[in-house]
Amino acid sequence: MTQETQRTTLPIVQMAKDNDEFRQVIWTGEQSQLVLMAIPQGGEIGGEVHEGHDQLLYFVEGEGEATIGEVKVAVQAGDVSIVPSGVFHNFKNIGSGMLKLYTTYSPPEHAPGTEHVTKREADAE
């Protein structure tokens, strides 16, 4: 899928459920960015800190564990995790299928149109 530059309304939940790529940037504006993510069984996003970027993660399928700062909680479809700028975070898939979500960054974190099929590909970049 290519970046959605002309559309302002998207069926984002269905797009996230249909996505099998680790990371797929679908829209980037001056102040925010929309990204699809799919974490395979037993996989994780990887611990990180975004300085100067707030992040919201909206879960649409699967079961996971969110670590935000010192707090660990279970996440599932319908949950949103809030990661303020400068806070350590990681998200692990603890379910039996894919953990699927969409996330927003404010301001944008990745180059427009970024696609990573796997975490290994994302880490290499």
From TrEMBL:
This is Cupin domain-containing protein. Signal peptide: none annotated. InterPro entries: Cupin_2, Flavonoid_dioxygenase-like, RmlC-like_jellyroll, RmlC_Cupin_sf. Residues 36-104 form the Cupin type-2 domain. It comes from the Bacteria. Gene3D superfamilies: Jelly Rolls. Pfam families: Cupin_2 (PF07883). It comes from Halomonas saccharevitans. PANTHER family: LIGAND BINDING DOMAIN PROTEIN, PUTATIVE (AFU_ORTHOLOGUE AFUA_6G14370)-RELATED, QUERCETIN 2,3-DIOXYGENASE-RELATED.
